């Protein structure tokens, strides 16, 4: 009698097939904004420059601007260098995220909160599962993100999600039994620069100083890994199922010194004052 070999679940099965193809025929290349994204709003305030190597998004009192990837991807790593708006940018939001569509969509992303002059910048990270947005963690950045470009990365594979700032992991979201995990909905990459006076200054209501406008966020060195070959391949540690010891130490350093909000410590911020299941599994 032939032995029975269990069949892996569909998302894992697809991932393994694509992984085999990637290992046998890798292609190394940098992305090009002209080929990979489209400007979706802004009436000219979003610009692709330098033969596709740079995008600038601008915001003035009339409108912000945005772009999105041309294709959607199931599991990827995205690396982009971003320089945030300079000056008194309180009231502005720069967002950079992966998202599917619909009421039960999934989302993985960074949101950079504009600040009052002299304040530390706050970056919010969130994992939205089935349309529920209560998994936020916020950090102070340990540098001035308006002075130069810094690399912000999202790693999303079948077992975990990691947020990186300049290759330092700041947050990991692991697949946990009983917790919805993004594995069945392909996502596009989105970025936008917008206005949000009501809370876009570290949680303090502000009035945007429009004399500082136009505010401008810049994006460059766009690169990604996609196991279906639709994205530009770069050499990355895709096969990791979890952070190694060195990665965990770096993440612990970032969370100890720069984390300013953790949804797993905010009991009152959840329905029936019950923390999500993954909080006890950390």
From TrEMBL:
One of its GO terms (cellular component) is apoplast. It is found in: Secreted, Cell wall; Secreted, Extracellular space, Apoplast. Pfam families: Glyco_hydro_16 (PF00722), XET_C (PF06955). It comes from the Eukaryota. Gene3D superfamilies: 2.60.120.200. Its main location: secreted. One of its GO terms (biological process) is cell wall biogenesis. It is an enzyme of class 2 (transferase). Residues 27-219 form the GH16 domain. Residues 1-29 form the signal peptide. Keywords: Apoplast, Cell wall, Cell wall biogenesis/degradation, Disulfide bond, Glycosidase, Glycosyltransferase, Hydrolase, Secreted, Signal, Transferase. GO terms for molecular function: hydrolase activity, hydrolyzing O-glycosyl compounds; xyloglucan:xyloglucosyl transferase activity. Contains at least one intrachain disulfide bond essential for its enzymatic activity. The keyword Glycosyltransferase applies. InterPro entries: Beta-glucanase-like (IPR000757), Beta-glucanase/XTH (IPR044791), ConA-like_dom_sf (IPR013320), XET_C (IPR010713), XTH (IPR016455). Its EC number is 2.4.1.207. Belongs to the glycosyl hydrolase 16 family. Catalyzes xyloglucan endohydrolysis (XEH) and/or endotransglycosylation (XET). Cleaves and religates xyloglucan polymers, an essential constituent of the primary cell wall, and thereby participates in cell wall construction of growing tissues. This is Xyloglucan endotransglucosylase/hydrolase. It comes from Apostasia shenzhenica.
């Amino acid at each position: 009698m032939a032995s029975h070999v269990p069949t892996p679940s569909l998302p894992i099965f697809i991932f393994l097939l694509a992984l085999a193809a990637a290992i046998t025929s890798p292609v190394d290349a940098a992305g090009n904004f002209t080929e990979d994204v489209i400007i979706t709003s802004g009436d000219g305030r979003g610009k692709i420059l330098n033969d596709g190597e740079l995008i600038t998004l601008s915001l003035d009192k009339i409108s912000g601007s945005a772009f999105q990837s041309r294709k959607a991807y199931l599991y990827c790593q995205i690396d982009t260098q971003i320089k945030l708006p300079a000056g008194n940018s309180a009231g502005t939001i720069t967002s950079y995220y992966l998202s599917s569509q619909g009421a039960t969509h999934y989302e993985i992303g960074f949101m950079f909160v504009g600040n009052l002059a002299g304040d530390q910048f706050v970056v919010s990270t969130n994992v939205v599962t089935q349309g529920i947005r209560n998994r936020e963690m916020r950090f102070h950045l340990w540098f001035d993100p308006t002075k130069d470009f810094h690399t912000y990365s999202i790693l999303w594979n079948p077992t975990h999600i990691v947020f990186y700032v300049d290759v330092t992991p700041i947050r990991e979201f692991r697949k946990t039994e009983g917790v919805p995990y993004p594995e069945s909905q392909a996502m596009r990459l989105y970025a936008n620069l917008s206005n949000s006076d009501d809370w876009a200054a570290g949680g303090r209501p502000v009035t945007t100083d429009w004399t500082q406008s136009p505010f401008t966020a810049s994006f460059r060195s766009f690169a990604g890994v996609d196991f279906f070959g639709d994205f530009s391949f770069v050499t990355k540690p895709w096969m990791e199922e979890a952070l190694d010891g060195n990665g965990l130490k770096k993440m612990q350093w970032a969370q100890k010194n720069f984390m300013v909000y953790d949804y797993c410590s905010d009991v009152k911020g959840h329905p029936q004052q019950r923390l999500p299941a993954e909080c006890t599994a950390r």
